[in-house]
Design a protein that fits this description.
By secondary structure, the chain is of the alpha/beta class. The chain is 48% helix and 19% strand.
């Protein structure tokens, strides 16, 4: 805009200012962007939930793990006991003396791993003799015993004695096949499988678990059947190991197609006893209380020894023995604490995510300030996370938490980034627009308190001094002078007048033809005396500046220009005023009309600066004036007392006298006395 004349520069600036004000003040545009971003993320995350995307599933499971850790361990049911094949059991024989081995020949059964199968047979006898309700053995008996058929026969006989009160582990294992890998069932060896038994056959259940995207065991074994076996064409009649254990205990199995283990805590949360204590008389009497610890219990036998490497990641530990995971699964089923997805169907979960994220996100767009929006988003995330946690702990329901909070968080982040970016761009644009219209200190104050500035633009009443300045004889000058000269002189005049106004912290409101309108106290009002005196100082500077310009123009052979200035003080309404197609920031009201009317009277009163009594009362102690009569003003009842402004108090009146003399001489020389009544545009 540097190559445009001042009037055109300000017109362009006003258009830019209007667009900025409209985009900022209507709020609907900013809110529409925020709503759009929120709904976009809500739809994206809802779609991900509906499609059950692995990445989103991993996030939800990570939230579930954090809920476990926040909740902490809980007391397991007393009916479940773990009999651990631990490091102490594996090293018992190596650490025993020859005398101890001779006195306890049964220790030979667990002398070396893998143990003799007769050891498990004796364990069954002792556990059931102690009153155990059921025994589940998490050890695979896939191949014949290394110790010969007689060893297998002893276990087979033991299984036949207790029949369906025993649960045995089987496993689906990967194997090589032509064209790729396949799964096969590693089942019970025929050498130990009883063909029939009076008490029924032992229960069998697969021990496989489905690893979650986070690498942790979270789901019950049935998830492995539905998500791994079923897609491969398996139709297993076998239940999971946990379900088989319930059957062995004569408890009704839970028909759970999908659900997660409600983990009770870290390793050894369940009562954990050493397998070797079954074979040590002293341990049997003291540690196991002669078997009383097993009465009416479900006993799970399985490895916990470090060397056997049967460890898995769980919410409470990265080294959880498999047998303890089975104990958690069994206890979850016994107490009916299965964690189930709510809603179960992915499409329904996607709809819930959309409703929660979309609803809370739109709620967050209601406030005007970005900080308030962020606060609502954070509170919304916290509230929904709390709802998810309470549902997890008390209702055993896994509500979608990660997807809604991610949608709210990402939407909020986008809104804040967009808001910050837009704010900076608008701030730079506003600075470019205003820096030529207001003084630097006023501009700095406006930029530092932008929110207050925006509120002012919506419309408010304030007290301000309004100044109108109009060129005398402009019609004749513009018609008799070449256009280039008119533009050049007019640009020089406007540049100097605007500088005088801005130097006194005034705001250039508009140009109306050859007239200038300015305010002192808008958009930032100060003390009434301060604004009124600034308007007076600006008018005196305009008088002095125009006198200097006339000397330059006369030396260049150009016609001189004179102006008339009217100033009034009072209430105005300031704001962004206009139509949808064209609007601008300005002031309106009686004070504006009065300033315009008395500026027109300067021609009749033969003086260049006229002020009203409302302004004079504020600066009476600081200015020298000549009292004029009270004059009626069109559209205003009564008369208004006017004063001719001579100078500041104690300042010489030479310039005032000189300007009046020069103006009269100019009028006489140009025979322009008839133009004293030429019309001036009014606001």
């Amino acid at each position: 805009m540097a190559d445009l004349d001042p009037s055109k520069r300000l017109v362009v600036a006003k258009v830019l200012l209007r667009r900025w004000l409209r985009s900022d003040l209507s709020h609907s545009g900013s809110r529409s962007v925020s709503c759009g971003l929120m709904l976009l993320w809500a739809l994206a995350l809802a779609g991900g939930a509906a499609l059950d995307l692995p990445a989103l599933r991993a996030l939800e499971q990570a939230v579930q793990v954090s809920f476990f850790r926040l909740r902490g361990p809980v007391a397991p049911p007393e009916s479940v006991v773990v009999l651990a094949i631990d490091d102490a059991s594996l090293s018992l024989v190596q650490n025993a003396s020859a005398a101890e081995l001779a006195a306890q020949p049964d220790l030979e059964l667990i002398a070396a791993w893998p143990w003799r199968r007769a050891a498990y047979a004796q364990a069954l006898d002792r556990l059931f003799a102690a009153g155990a309700r059921a025994v589940a053995i998490d050890v695979l008996f896939v191949e014949p015993s290394l110790y010969g058929p007689q060893d297998d026969a002893l276990l087979k006989a033991g299984l036949a004695r207790y029949g369906s009160r025993v649960a045995l582990a089987v496993s689906y294992e990967s194997g090589a096949a032509q064209g790729g890998s396949t799964l096969r069932l590693a089942s019970l060896a025929s050498a130990v499988s009883p063909g029939s038994a009076a008490g029924g056959l032992p229960r069998r259940g697969f021990t496989n678990f489905l690893n979650s995207p986070t690498g942790q065991v979270l789901a019950l074994g049935e998830a492995y059947a539905s998500q791994v076996l079923a897609p491969l064409g398996f139709a297993p009649a076998l239940p999971s190991f946990a379900q088989a254990t319930l059957l062995a205990a004569n408890l009704a199995p839970r028909r759970v197609l999908e659900g997660n283990i409600n983990a009770y805590g870290p390793p050894q949360t369940f009562p954990t006893l050493s397998f070797a204590d079954l074979f040590l008389p002293e341990a049997w009497q003291h540690n196991l209380k002669r078997g009383a610890v097993f009465r009416d219990k479900i006993v799970l036998i399985g490895p916990t020894a470090t060397s056997l490497q049967d460890f898995h990641r769980t919410p409470f530990s990265n080294q959880m023995p498999g047998v303890e995971i089975h104990a958690n699964a069994v206890a979850t089923l016994i107490q009916d604490r299965v964690l189930q997805l709510a809603p179960a169907q992915p499409s329904a979960r996607g709809l819930l995510v959309l409703l929660v994220a979309g609803g809370l996100g739109l709620l967050a767009t209601l406030p005007e300030r970005p900080v308030a929006r962020l606060a609502i988003l954070l509170v919304s995330c916290g509230v929904w996370t709390s709802v998810g946690y309470l549902g997890f702990v008390f209702a055993h329901q896994l509500l979608p938490v990660a997807a809604p909070t991610a949608a709210l968080g990402l939407g909020g982040l986008c809104v804040l980034i967009a808001s910050a970016t837009t704010d900076q761009l608008e701030k730079l644009r506003l600075r470019r627009i205003l820096e030529h219209r207001v003084a630097a200190p006023v501009l700095q104050e406006i930029m530092s308190q932008r929110e207050d500035w925006v509120s002012l633009l919506r419309g408010r009443r304030l007290q301000a001094a309004v100044l109108f300045a109009d060129i005398r004889g402009f019609t004749r000058f513009s018609t008799e002078s070449p256009p280039e000269q008119v533009v050049e002189q007019l640009n020089s005049y406007f540049d100097r007048m605007v500088e005088a106004i801005i130097s006194e912290n005034g705001t250039v409101d508009k140009f109306i033809g050859d007239a200038v309108m300015a305010e002192f106290g808008s958009p930032r009002p100060r003390q009434p005396q301060t604004d009124a005196l600034s308007a007076v100082r600006a008018a005196l500077k305009m008088r002095e500046t125009l006198a200097d310009l006339r000397r330059i123009w006369q030396a260049e052979g150009k016609p001189p220009l004179f102006n008339g200035i009217g100033i009034s003080y009072g209430e105005v309404i300031a704001g962004d005023i206009g139509s949808q197609r064209r609007a601008e920031y300005t002031v309106i009201g009686d004070t504006v009309n009065v300033a315009s009317r008395i500026e027109g009277l300067t021609k009749q009163l033969q003086t260049d600066i006229v002020i009203t009594d409302s302004l004079y009362e504020l600066v009476a102690d600081q200015v020298t004036v000549q009292a004029l009569d009270a004059y009626p003003l069109r559209g205003r009842p009564g008369k208004t007392q006017l004063y001719a402004l001579i100078s500041l108090k104690d300042a010489p009146a030479l310039l005032y006298t000189q300007v009046q003399t020069e103006f009269k001489a100019y009028l006489e020389s140009q025979a322009m006395l008839g133009e004293l009544g030429e019309a001036t545009p009014e606001s």
